[in-house]
Amino acid sequence: MSAGTSEFFCLICALLSTCTALTADLGQNVTMPCQFFGNKHNNITLLKWSRPDQGPDSYILLYEDGRFHPDKQLPSYKDRVYLEDMETRDFSLILMNVTMEDRGPYECDFVEEGWNQLSRTTSTTFLEVVEPGNKDGNTGDGGNKTRVIVGSILGVILLLAVLGSVGFLIYRRLMKKNPNLPVPSDEAAAGQML
After folding, report:
1. Are 6 and 126 in contact (CB under 8 A)?
2. Angle at 51 between CA 69 and CA 74, to 5 degrees
């Protein structure tokens, strides 16, 4: 995965607030969040942690039919992943001894069954791995990572400004073409507010 892809993913995470971005030092243990807040009496029929960037069946951890399936686990995660606390329905993934290859997106997906209905929950975490001591984002690339993030944010702001301006110009053009559209005067608008 290229450096630009990770910044783009982190920007989307920040804008949509549907996922978490974490940074871990090489060799460190990291916990990726995934919690169940539903009815604790509901049965969890499926729980899987996967790497969506590595294909559809790229399981880090798979629990299905009441048991774990280590035979379906990606080999590089064998004996390095654990759940925080299955009993309390905290499905956060603990990844031990983080490597550079662990960098990328992770998805926690679980299905609960209760009262003749199924509900599915998915959360996404993007893991950035850095050399120890580089938590400030200094990746030794001369600041390119920071420039990409700032440039991406400014690009989104500029895009929103352009879209707002275009919308305003379209509105003004419509008003010029049809001057008979009712526009409340200041006095009428003030009277409506009371």
Report:
1. yes
2. 40
Those residues with Cβ within 8 angstroms of residue 106's Cβ, 6 or more apart along the chain or in another chain: 32, 49, 50, 51, 60, 93, 124, 125, 126, 127
**Highest averaged pLDDT of the listed ranges 114-118, 124-128, 136-140:** 124-128
Model confidence over 61-90: pLDDT tens digits?
A: 999 988 999 999 999 999 999 999 888 888
Angle formed at CA 71 by CA 70 and CA 75, multiple of 5 degrees:
85
Summarised one tens digit per residue, pLDDT across range 2-22 is: 444 555 555 554 444 457 889
* Contact of 126 with 105, CB cutoff 8 Å: yes
Other CB atoms within a 10 A radius of the CB of residue 81 amount to 16
Q: Check pLDDT > 50 for residue 23.
A: yes
Which pLDDT belongs to residue 63? 92
Query: What angle do helix axes 3-16 and 144-177 make, rounded to 10 degrees?
Result: 50
List the structure tokens of 120: 């599915």
CB 127 within 8 Å of CB 103? yes
Instruction: Please give the structure tokens belonging to residue 130.
Output: 């850095």
Please tell me what DSSP assigns to residue 77. G
Dist CA 166 CA 136 (whole Å) = 38
pTM, to two decimals:
0.61
Give the Cα separation of 194 and 184 in Å (integer): 14
